[in-house]
Amino acid sequence: MNGSDSGSGPHGSSRPERSGHRRRRVVLAAAVAAAVVLGGFIAVNAVRNDGGVPAVAASREATTQAPRATATESAPAAEPAPAGTADPGTAAAQPAPGVEPVAPEDPSLATQDLPVSEPVAIDGGSSEAGGLDIRVASMEAVEGEAIGIGEIGGPSVRFTVSVANGSNEPVDLSNAVLTVEAGPDRLPCTELSGPATAAFPVQAKPGETVTGIFVFLIPKESRNDVTVYLNYSVDASVAAFHGAVPAP
């Protein structure tokens, strides 16, 4: 009797009560630990992504949505030029509406071979060309001056050439050209800018005599064989003069 009563007293009934409390504490501790872990995981993800989107998911979304540039992607086609405009790649542009095209100059004028009059004496001879009386009025040995670009001064001859207009019309002399050749090989002589040179006037009026003054570098050894030519128009023959010129 005493043995069975001892198990139901205060000391005997304390064991099952302590065991139940212990089990409840273990379950509660496990729940708290799980809550702490879950809360930490959520906080870490929120800090990492700074916007509520998982980092891996955001990276994948950016990768799939970004357009991919390829080396074979073709450039946009060029728009056609507006109507009425010239193509810069063509050799000649079309004239603007209402503008009359300008015809080019006769190319034969640049390469046309003009007849040369029979040379006359350079000292005192007269050449008739296109109604003009052309003469070498005077010659003198001078020291040529190198004034123009590329010129080289040296012993030269200065020629004064006169042109008398015996016609009833003014004669254009704006394109008159004087050239000189020297020696048996007819080598061209270099024209110099000085001293005291003067071009022909633009025209010679009817009955007027005009002059031009020219200086040419002529080697001393070639001055016994000099030819002077005056070409003033494509419609007239070239006047020619030949002979010896003054030596220094």
Word description of this protein:
25% of the residues lie in helices and 27% in strands. The chain has helices at 2-8, 10-49, 55-65, 108-111, and strands at residues 120-121, 126-129, 132-144, 154-165, 171-172, 177-182, 187-188, 190-192, 203-204, 209-217, 226-231, 239-243. The strands form 3 sheets. A 5-stranded mixed β-sheet has the order 1-12-11-6-7, with no helix packed on it. The chain is globular.
The rounded Rg comes to 56 Å
Straight-line distance between termini? 174 Å
In which order are the strands of the major sheet placed? 1-12-11-6-7
Helical/strand content category: alpha+beta
How many β-strand runs? 12
Q: SSE order in H/E notation?
A: HHHHEEEEEEEEEEEE
Low-confidence stretches: 1-21, 41-75, 84-93, 98-111
> How large is the share of residues in beta strands?
25-35%
Mean of all residue-level pLDDT scores? 73
Q: How many strands, what sense, and barrel or not for the largest sheet?
A: 5 strands, mixed
Can you lay out the helices and strands and say which pair or pack?
Layout: H1 2-8, H2 10-49, H3 55-65, H4 108-111, E1 120-121, E2 126-129, E3 132-144, E4 154-165, E5 171-172, E6 177-182, E7 187-188, E8 190-192, E9 203-204, E10 209-217, E11 226-231, E12 239-243
Parallel strand pairs: 1-12
Antiparallel strand pairs: 2-3, 3-4, 4-10, 5-9, 6-7, 6-11, 8-10, 11-12
